[in-house]
Amino acid sequence: MRRCPITSRTRPHHVDFGSHDSPDSTTKMADAEAVKALGGLLNGIAQRVYYGNSEITEELLKDELYPDVPQEEFRALYEKMRGLLKSVAVADMDQTQLEAFLTAQTCKHGGGGTSSEQAAALARFWKGHRARVRESLLAQSRWEPALRGLSWRVDLQTATSRGQTSNSPVALVELELGRNGQDSEFVCLEFDDVKINQVLKKMSEIQESIDSIVHHS
């Protein structure tokens, strides 16, 4: 299977110039590397969960980003970051909502809390991926095939299916249907005035139901 690197991992050679980094500098470098790895993990989760990239697996993410971390520890981190991303994505949080959410998460005590590195990585990731994740969720929630277009015309029916003469007006409706990434299919329907009234009544009921939900939300 072709390997898809999530983020670059460099292993710099140690060169001693006779001086040593200060503890604060070393800590900052470690924090930056942690945020970078977490960003790669979030990107991998999004690729797998939201973008449909089946080549991205947990095993690949572990090997690329956390090769020295025990499997159980990585699994816990993976599930935690996936859960955080899901909460943010489902709510489609804006910047203010995200900041409040991350503040609440970092204030939690015990193993359920979020570290500052995890919060920083999630904030950075969501800033760049919010629109794409939202579009993916919308696409996943749509029924397939979806209605792409509708055209109609009114015609005079000169004869019935039994060969009887008729001058009744009929509506000819053409529906354009399609699945994501596929060509359209067309369905032609014919309605007389009775069927049109039945359809309009049903559409009115649907509109009333939608309005009641919107007004209560």
Task: Label this structure with key terms.
217 residues, alpha+beta, three-stranded antiparallel sheet, 6 helices, 3 strands, 54% helix, elongated, disordered N terminus, COMMD1_N, Murr1
Topology record:
Layout: H1 23-49, H2 58-65, H3 71-91, H4 95-106, H5 116-141, E1 146-159, E2 165-178, E3 185-191, H6 193-216
Antiparallel strand pairs: 1-2, 2-3
Q: What do you see in this structure?
A:
The chain is an alpha+beta fold and 217 residues long. It folds into two domains: 26-141, no CATH class; 146-216, no CATH class. Helices cover 54% and strands 16% of the residues. The chain has six helices and three strands. It has helices at residues 23-49, 58-65, 71-91, 95-106, 116-141, 193-216, and strands spanning 146-159, 165-178, 185-191. It has a three-stranded antiparallel sheet with strand order 1-2-3. Strand 1 (146-159) and strand 2 (165-178) form a beta hairpin. Helix 1 packs parallel to helix 5 (116-141). The longest helix has 27 residues, at 23-49. The protein is elongated, with a radius of gyration of 28 Å. Residues 1-20 have low confidence and may be disordered. One of its GO terms (cellular component) is endosome. Pfam families: COMM_domain (PF07258), COMMD1_N (PF17221). InterPro entries: COMM, COMMD1_N, Murr1.
